[in-house]
């Protein structure tokens, strides 16, 4: 790692960026560039996750990995196949905020599928460091940094410094997903949206796409917002791998993730394994559809960075409960409720209860109120 003065400056820069209201592409691009001054890297891969399911919702690649998507299927099968102890999902279950593969897991690095099947033999890197974007509400994403085979391994100072950035990156990602309001759909000449209703993709046991519904390619295109963003099929293959792995876990729910599209609209992606008549398949069906308000309320509210009590007040406001009833329910004074509301309004960037409800519920629906609703429940325009 560079000198401590540089490290402190970079830490301060990332903190400032995380509070600047930047969208995801701007924040992650500028923050990763800043980190490089303190912890040199040859390539970087940055992911955002749904904090509820820990599934991938977007990915960005920089440096030597930029625009290299040919190994996304292998990565997905390793990262979400359930055997990799250093996967982001596994690390999220620990108290770690950052690791260096050789520094933090020396006894495991030679057994890591990711390191020995992908990172070293295919990409030619010598070491990897990972930092989790964690706060009290969960894990919002993670960053993997890579060094060449002849470069120094990530050391204890590197890992400690990267861990110190965890909450700042979480804050920046939370703010990034809310940085833009939804835009009206881009319409075809007929007046219909190019991506109306759910889209379906079927992937077979050999990870080949065998069937795809009308409108699915348009839905996938919505997930690519900038040059550094990964091929949207990379997200699909993580769902496929997670769905197959769920079969080995009794009582496991089917994988699902809430994704903010480039347009600002929220999409819900979920996957389910398919079974043939003989009980053997490996095929997986992925569905992409517009998320409904109840499916995104908790995520949007969490992104406002509210305290636990402020979240309690917000939930009651969204239920239409007045100040007096909120005070009685929470056993506080009406003045305390008003103080909480003022703080909530400031964090959400609104001025009233009505504005708060609109921000949470109608962010992606208000631009199309009055439009015709199609047979699937989606807006036709």
From TrEMBL:
Signal peptide: none annotated. Residues 299-370 form the HTH luxR-type domain. InterPro entries: Sig_transdc_resp-reg_C-effctor (IPR016032), Tscrpt_reg_LuxR_C (IPR000792), WH-like_DNA-bd_sf (IPR036388). Keywords: DNA-binding, Transcription, Transcription regulation. One of its GO terms (molecular function) is DNA binding. GO terms for biological process: regulation of DNA-templated transcription. Gene3D superfamilies: Winged helix-like DNA-binding domain superfamily/Winged helix DNA-binding domain (1.10.10.10). It holds the Pfam family GerE. SUPFAM superfamilies: C-terminal effector domain of the bipartite response regulators (SSF46894). This is Regulatory LuxR family protein.
């Amino acid at each position: 790692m560079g000198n401590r003065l540089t490290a402190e400056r970079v830490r301060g820069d990332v903190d400032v960026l995380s509070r600047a209201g930047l969208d995801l592409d701007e924040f992650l691009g500028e923050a990763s560039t800043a980190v490089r001054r303190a912890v040199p890297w040859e390539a970087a891969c940055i992911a955002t996750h749904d904090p509820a399911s820990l599934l991938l919702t977007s990915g960005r690649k920089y440096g030597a990995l930029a625009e290299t998507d040919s190994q996304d299927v292998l990565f997905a099968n390793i990262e979400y196949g359930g055997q990799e102890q250093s996967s982001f999902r596994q690390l999220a279950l620990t108290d770690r905020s950052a690791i260096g593969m050789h520094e933090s897991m020396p006894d495991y690095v030679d057994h890591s599928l990711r390191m020995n099947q992908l990172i070293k033999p295919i990409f030619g890197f010598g070491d990897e460091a990972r930092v989790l974007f964690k706060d009290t509400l969960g894990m919002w994403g993670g960053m993997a940094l890579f060094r060449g085979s002849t470069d120094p391994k990530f050391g204890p100072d590197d890992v400690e410094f990267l861990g110190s950035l965890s909450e700042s990156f979480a804050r920046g990602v939370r703010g990034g997903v809310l940085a833009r309001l939804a835009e009206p759909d881009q319409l075809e000449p007929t007046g219909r949206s190019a991506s109306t209703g759910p889209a379906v993709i079927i992937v077979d046991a050999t990870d080949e796409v065998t069937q795809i519904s009308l409108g699915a390619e348009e839905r996938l295109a919505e997930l690519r917002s900038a040059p550094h963003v990964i091929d949207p099929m990379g997200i699909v293959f993580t769902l496929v791998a997670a769905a197959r792995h769920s079969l080995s876990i009794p009582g496991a729910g089917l994988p699902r993730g809430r994704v903010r599209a480039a347009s600002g609209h929220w999409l819900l992606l979920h996957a389910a394994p398919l079974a043939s008549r003989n009980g053997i398949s490996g095929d997986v069906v992925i569905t992409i559809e517009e998320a409904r308000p109840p499916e995104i309320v908790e995520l949007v509210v969490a992104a406002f960075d509210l305290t636990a009590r402020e979240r309690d007040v917000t939930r009651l406001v969204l239920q239409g409960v007045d100040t007096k009833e909120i005070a009685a329910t929470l056993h506080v004074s009406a003045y305390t409720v008003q103080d909480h509301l003022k703080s909530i309004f400031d964090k959400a960037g609104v001025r009233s209860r009505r504005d708060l409800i609109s921000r949470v519920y109608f962010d992606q629906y208000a631009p199309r109120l009055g439009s015709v609703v199609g047979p699937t429940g989606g807006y036709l325009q």
